[in-house]
Amino acid sequence: MFNYTFYWSIVWEKFPELLQGARITLEVTILSMIFGTALALPLSLWRRAREGVGHAFATGWVELARNTPALFQVYMVYFGLGSLHIHLPSYFAMVAALTFNNAGYLAETFRGGLNSVPPQQLSAARSLGMSAFSAYAYVVFPQVFQVVFFPYVNQLNWALLNSSLGMIIGLRELTGATQAAQSESFRTFEFFIVAACIYYVMAKAIETLAQLASWRLFGR
Amino acid sequence: MIEIENVRKSFGTLEVLKGINLSIEKGEVLCLIGGSGSGKSTLLQCINGLQSIQGGNIIVDGTNVHARDTNLNTLRQKLGIVFQQYNAFPHLTALENVALAPRVVKKQSRRDALDLAREHLDYVGLGSKADMKPSGLSGGQQQRLAIARALAMKPAYMLFDEVTSALDPELVGEVLDTLRKLKESGMTMIVVTHDVAFARESGDRVAFFDQGVICELGPARQVINDPKEERTRQFLQRVLH
Q1: Would you say the C-alpha torsion B185, B186, B190, B191 has a positive or negative sign?
Q2: Which of A7, A143, A171, B73 fits as disulfide partner to A166, beta carbons 3.0 to 4.6 Å?
Q3: Using an 8 Å Cβ cutoff, are A195 and A11 in contact?
Q4: With pLDDT > 90 as the criterion, what percentage of chain A qualifies?
Q5: In the structure, what pLDDT confidence band is assigned to residue A1 with cuts at 50, 70 and 90?
Q6: Partner-chain residue, chosen from A123, A128, A139, that has the shortest CB–CB distance to B153
Q7: DSSP A127-196
Q8: SS3 content of chain B, % helix, strand, coil (to 5)
Q9: Residues on chain B touching A139 (C-beta within 8 angstroms)
Q10: The ABC transporter domain covers which part of the protein (chain B) (predicted)?
């Protein structure tokens, strides 16, 4: 049982392919966060409205994104749309699915952040003669930013790890690339240990940078 | 001069101001007293346009506050307001709290705004706290910070909305001292307060609000020491004993 012999040389040979996969992983993660953030902003505002079409739409989005497995969301975009003859390349399907997921979670994060700033802050800013735009830009949003900063970073890490689902729709991100590489040599254990290490380094780097940014920006 | 003519204000079906008439001269200190829900705080918020009105007019130096073409952002620079709950900006230091509006609204240079802010923090006795965040300040200090922040816009009028009501008793004095100092400097002030002693001593006139109307208006000492209206007398008996 414990006489497994590790062969690392085969992994090093394929290492550039894994790094190429890691690059795709980062691309998909970052793009899905950018689009997810852009969508989450209006979704969070619609969620704050008590009623209306926007509210219903945003609520439906948030409910689906947060209460169904990310794997299903990936399937829906790739195979689901495929059945309707909308065939997205796996790269775009993955970005779209992760964007859907990120937007759902981030909308709630932003909504919580907006709710955490008392409405009197806005009154105080407006009473000093600030326009609505200035009041939000200098008083409300900086406070929201502080509140949502770490939850946002969590979502970024979550997106990074979720992007591994790309493998099942044939995307050669880190997991997909690892799967392909090991299938030629069957050194599954070695390949996935190395892939896990690369994920760990990327996630840890995000966490560390966020901590540094937080000290710099908020002094904590 | 602030002229308030037959102002009516409702929240839904609840009418909180039922025809208020008042005028405040330059340099005057007018204190508004009365029970909770009598409409005095609402009136302050109507004066600087934070609340809309359903009838009447409020004219500040000839500008109708609630007219459609009035630029409230410009008008509000004339009308400093300080709230019961301080509302300091928690993400900024004391100095930045005061410097923000002069920079953003009046487009002053960073250096000018910071100099101005230091001057006003000194005025309210917070010069040594300039680099602290509001979370590190006591309630009284946060309230004085809010006063400095409003004063830095060089308003012609200052509106105070129960500025000592949220404070621990031992912190009330330092805030009232700041208000007295302002009165001595000749600032025109409308002060909503539960502190009848302060109103008697520092107010030029006192208006007693009851259920959305001004029940009694007169010189501060007369209204408080010798009220003419029975409702004023009852109110004062409740708060003084």
Answers
A1: positive
A2: A171
A3: no
A4: 83
A5: low
A6: A128
A7: HTT--HHHIIIIIIHHHHHHHHHHHHHHHHHHHHHHGGGGGGGT--SHHHHHHHHHHHH--HHHHHHHHH
A8: 40, 25, 35
A9: 89, 100
A10: 2-236
A9-48 and A188-218 are packed helices; what angle lies between their axes, rounded to 10 degrees? Answer: 40
Tokens for A123, please give them.
């009154």
**Range A9-218: architecture per CATH:** Orthogonal Bundle (1.10)
What phi, psi does B162 have (nearest 5°)? 45, 55
Residue B136 identity? G
Strands B213-219 and B205-210: antiparallel
- Given an 8 Å threshold on Cβ–Cβ distance, is A129 in contact with B100? no
Q: Would you kindly state where each structural domain of chain A is located, as residue ranges?
A: 9-218
Say how far apart CA B211 and CA B13 lie, in whole Å.
Answer: 14
Nearest CB to B104; choose among A121, A124, A138: A138
Specify the CATH number for B2-240; select among 3.40.50.300, 3.40.50.2000, 1.20.1560.10, 3.30.460.80: 3.40.50.300
A104-158 pLDDT, tens per residue?
A: 999 999 999 999 999 999 999 999 999 999 999 999 999 999 999 999 999 999 9
A131-135, A171-175, B37-41, B130-134: the lowest-pLDDT one? B37-41
Chain A CB within 8 Å of residue B110 CB? no
How many CB contacts within 8 angstroms connect chain A with chain B?
57
Q: Look up the pTM and report it.
A: 0.81
Residue pair B79/B60 in contact by the 8 Å Cβ criterion:
yes
B63, B157 in Cβ contact below 8 A?
no
Residue B76 with chain A: CB contacts under 8 Å = 126-129
Three-state DSSP class for residue A13: helix
Structure confidence by residue, pLDDT tens digits, B188-225: 999 999 899 999 999 999 999 999 999 999 999 999 99
Q: What are the extents of the domains in chain B?
A: 2-240
- Give alpha helix (H) positions in B124-186: 139-151, 169-184
If residue B237 lies in a helix (H) or strand (E), which one and from where to where?
helix B230-240
Write the single-letter amino acid at A138: Y
Contacting residues of B for A118, CB less than 8 Å apart: 85, 87
Is B105 an interface residue toward A (CB < 8 Å)?
Answer: yes
Q: Which of A208, A182, A209 minimizes the C-alpha distance to A194?
A: A182
* Cα distance from N-terminal residue to C-terminal residue, chain B: 36
Q: What is the pLDDT of residue B168?
A: 87
- Name the phi and psi angles at B148, rounded to 5: -60, -40
